[in-house]
Amino acid sequence: MWNYTDKVKDHFLNPRNVGEIADADGIGEVGSLACGDALKLFFKLDAEKKRIADARFKTFGCASAIASSSALTEIIKGLTLEEASKISNEDIAHYLGGLPKEKMHCSVMGREALEAAIANYRGIALPMAQGELVCECFGVTDLEIRRAIQESNLRTVEEVTNFTKAGGGCGKCVDRIQEIILEVRHEGRHDKAGAGAPKRLTNIQKIKMIEDLLEREVRPALRRDGGDIELIDVDGDFVSVSLRGACVSCKKSQTTLKEYVEKKLREQVLDSLIVVEN
Amino acid sequence: MDNVIYMDNNATTKVADEVLEAMRPYFADLYGNPSSMHSFGGQVGRHIAAAREKIAAILGATPEEIIFTSCGTESDSTAILSSLQSLPAKRHIVITRVEHPAVKHLCESLDSLTGHKHRITQLPVEKDGTLDLARYEESLTEDTAVVSVMWANNETGVTFPIAAMAAMAKSRGILFHTDAVQAVGKIPIDLAKVPVDFLSLSGHKLHASKGIGVLYVRKGTPFVPFMVGGHQERGRRGGTENTAAIVGLGKACELAQANLTKENTLVRALRDKLENGLLAAVPHAILNGHQTERLPNTTNISFEFVEGEAILLHLDRFNICASSGSACTSGSLEPSHVLRAMGVPFTAAHGSVRLSLSVYNTEAEVDIVLAKLPPIIAELRAMSPFWESSHSGSVGHSQCDCKCS
């Protein structure tokens, strides 16, 4: 059960401004049925075309999505477009007395619908949609991810997923999100890229380092006893090897693999590697 | 809370009054350790033996084949890890895509847990949640150590042909485990006729307390303990017996066996009335799961164009307890793995609601749900941007065929 504030419950059970505006000045649509939540926002300007006179919404989604939409329409009524364009997802969450962290993307959806509606009124393309598509499952661009990292001071992929949904589907883009987090946070600190970042190896680098180590230290030691070792495959953390020569019939070969080869690989290449015999 | 309409019995169940009464003495008066030499503790051992017999009886097993554990998850882990240790040369496991996380996540983390690489076959299911037996047979190989397939699915109630599947595994020397936590007490089980090696059950799914589970291990099946310690459970599971819960589970199994006919007539009739009523009252409502190869107490219905969490929270206002396969209720962003494996479109999976009944539900409660749920769906649909546009046939990749224009 989610821990919703009374304000969230109130706006969910008694949503304000549900509906459509037939002659709306701006309409913004975000999300989709497949994503699990979607919001269609309508606003109407006053006679001078200065301030938002009316705002209405239709939402498909969970309690916090409905409450965020209701809150958004209440917040923007009476604002100029200039003022409205400064509304952030944090403003929506704050209006509701906070949202569970896993539900922050509902407030982000509200803000994005507002941006889309204003862009629709001004007849311009949505700036956030112009970036590189990072998360294909939920259609999230790098620009949206970068902004969320900056504005809400996000540090981990999990936090980015909570705010933007990016990475919450198949998970293929998780590495890319991690890179974006490092990029944004290093830009923010005017730091040299890569400093202090955790060691990350590409597969090729990993295989090369393992080969080098086997050649340099392991093989000479095994050959002294008439044995040998061959690298068969590297799959994630699993290093698959085959023992040759005297090692094949040696009773201590398993101990050699785990206590000697695996230990060496963990010390010098990656401490998560697991050696298996093919 | 007063007047709770509890239709979430696949999540957990009420402890039966008779079970609570049976458990009560073991907290204050009969607190002795059954392993003790004195008769004060020793008498508890006799009550545990009696409970073991009742549990064996509901399964068609012998008391020696019953091992007490702490929960269904422990039973699942014990069975699978024991099988892999008994057959160390084999590294292939067959499960289904709709297994409970207790089996699915364990198998997915076996490599890092054991330091050995394993191959896991996750069998797909049909649109109605059933399995293709020919496909299952093809998946069994020389390298297969164990098959772990649930007897009944927790989300849809769909049952698998465990007797036939276990026989196919047995003839190839493959161990067979079934997670039967949803099946025991709801459908007849006779292990004298069904050749499984291991079966898991969980107390709190059949009106006993939480914190007690059972692993059935067939006589002659190789076994390696998971919890290592004292001599309890004849050395097969260390740890002082949870005496109150064990005695309670014995009582619960006795009640479940007595209620089995009621479960398959009365509860089934209530479920059918609820299901048919909802499908008739709400347009764009779809039943998830096979119509008949299914537990008598479970119904899982998708209400298109609305989201499950919103439905549950509206039901909550009327003290109606149900659950959903929507992404928002799971804490993840994707809807239930069971519904996705069945190919239920996302548009419908997000709006799924599971109602699971027990012998404690009444027809009056079913009538209340039938009165309250359809207006909730209508209200949420009026708010949904997809509902009205669905009537022009544009959303959900299908033409609107309902008659409610």
Protein model, in words:
- The complex is a heterodimer of chains A (278) and B (405).
- Chain A folds into 3 domains: 6-126, Sufe protein. Chain: A (Alpha-Beta Complex); 131-189, Arc Repressor Mutant, subunit A, CATH 1.10.10.1100; 203-277, GMP Synthetase, Chain A, domain 3.
- Chain A has 278 residues and is α+β, with helices and mostly antiparallel strands.
- The two termini of chain A are 47 Å apart.
- Chain A has 10 helices and 8 strands.
- Chain A has a 3-stranded antiparallel β-sheet with strand order 1-2-3. In chain A, strands 6-7-8 form a 3-stranded mixed β-sheet, covered by helices on one side. In chain A, strands 4-5 form a two-stranded antiparallel ribbon.
- In chain A, β4 and β5 form a beta hairpin.
- By secondary structure, chain B is α/β, with parallel strands linked by helices.
- Chain B has helices at residues 17-23, 25-28, 39-59, 72-86, 101-108, 110-114, 133-139, 162-170, 243-281, 308-317, 327-330, 337-341, 346-349, 363-383, 385-391, and strands at 5-6, 66-69, 92-96, 119-123, 144-148, 175-179, 198-202, 213-217, 285-287, 298-303, 320-321, 352-356.
- In chain B, the strands form 3 sheets. A 7-stranded mixed β-sheet of chain B has the order 2-8-7-6-5-3-4, sandwiched between helices. In chain B, strands 9-10-12 form a 3-stranded antiparallel β-sheet.
- In chain B, α8 links the parallel β5 (144-148) and β6 (175-179).
- The A-B interface holds A 2, 9, 12-13, 15, 18, 29, 33-40, 58-63, 65-66, 102-103, 137-138, 161, 165, 168-169, 235, 237-238, 240, 274, 276 and B 111-112, 115-117, 305-310, 313-314, 317, 326-329, 331-335, 346-347, 350, 382-386, 395-396.
